[in-house]
Amino acid sequence: xxxxxxxxxxxxxxxxxxxxxxxxxxxxxxxxxxxxxxxxxxxxxxxxxxxxxxxxxxxxxxxxxxxxxxxxxxxxxxxxxxxxxxxxxxxxxxxxxxxxxxxxxxxxxxxxxxxxxxxxxxxxxxxxxxxxxxxxxxxxxxxxxxxxxxxxxxxxxxxxxxxxxxxxxxxxxxxxxxxxxxxxxxxxxxxxxxxxxxxxxxxxxxxxxxxxxxxxxxxxxxxxxxxxxxxxxxxxxxxxxxxxxxxxxxxxxxxxxxxxxxxxxxxxxxxxxxxxxxxxxxxxxxxxxxxxxxxxxxxxxxxxxxxxxxxxxxxxxxxxxxxxxxxxxxxxxxxxxxxxxxxxxxxxxxxxxxxxxxxxxxxxxxxxxxxxxxxxxxxxxxxxxxxxxxxxxxxxxxxxxxxxxxxxxxxxxxxxxxxxxxxxxxxxxxxxxxxxxxxxxxxxxxxxxxxxxxxxxxxxxxxxxxxxxxxxxxxxxxx
Length: 479
What we know:
five-stranded antiparallel sheet; 9 helices; rod-shaped
């Protein structure tokens, strides 16, 4: 029991793992992608906005210097640079630098950097290419993350210096980290909600599936008829109903098979006993002086042999039906002639048993149909024998054949007690015998239904008005 519970736990864990892998993992990957894209977007937005602002401001200051101060000599330029550094209003956030052609800082809003060489590539490129150049990286002196924009200062088209705006990215980095952390927390919350809802859903699915699986194992182990309590109203409820229905049908089939084996054993023993008994009597006793008794014994042997042959044929046909080897030899068949042959075969036998077999042919000759003459005759013989066996108490059987539209219809009616209404839906099922005490294997009508169905026809059994049972066989003129 402990081993079974452990196996069940492992199986449930495996189902949960597959569920998480197939449902939660893709959602998690999607959320990671969203967070990554959002982080990149936020970073690009903040850094891009700051860089654009610095470039606009730097370009305006550089244009002003180039236009008004660079042509008046170095002293005028230097004085204006010092004046601009002293009056620069955003010196707390942005450092304004004036850098010479050598790359060293000449004037700065931060006195600490004057005379130093920043050494970043934006300065070198601005000097060489005579265009505004941005820089985003670490300050080589302090190691701090900075954003800088260098604009060339020119005299007669020649670069003589650089005006540079530098700002720390510490505050922007905090804003970016805060925004990324916020979206990460939102994504994490969404992921937790997804995991929680999926776990609830998995438990609501896996646990019932485990119950159904255990019940199916019990059924497969032989507990036919076992039922599962249905507490569900969705697809699981339909599954439970189907399994309960399957279990009931398997139980019924097993019961019918058991009854069939018992019935066949009895049915085989009875004629064999009669044949063996009368055979020994004829061999050992001198019945030449009593020809009536001799004929009676031979008639018993013939009847029981015929019954045995019928049962063996039914069993063989049933075996072919089960493994799909039941086939037809199709040709043009005179249905009326085949029915009349069957009636001729049984008419005298029924008369000896005190049963009158009446035949009513249709109006005129019927056209041939496509079918298997031997199989159709087998159906007629089985139906006539069944009518005598179950309806012989009425002492009368009628058979008829006629064409009704595009089908030819054969009807065989007995005048016996009929079939209980509750048993009518099952009389064509294999092994079913109902409350009837008549001898038989319980598969003859199932074989007949199969043969007629293969011909494209319809085989029905019902109670006739006025008492008795009527079998109706409808076969298409051209199957």
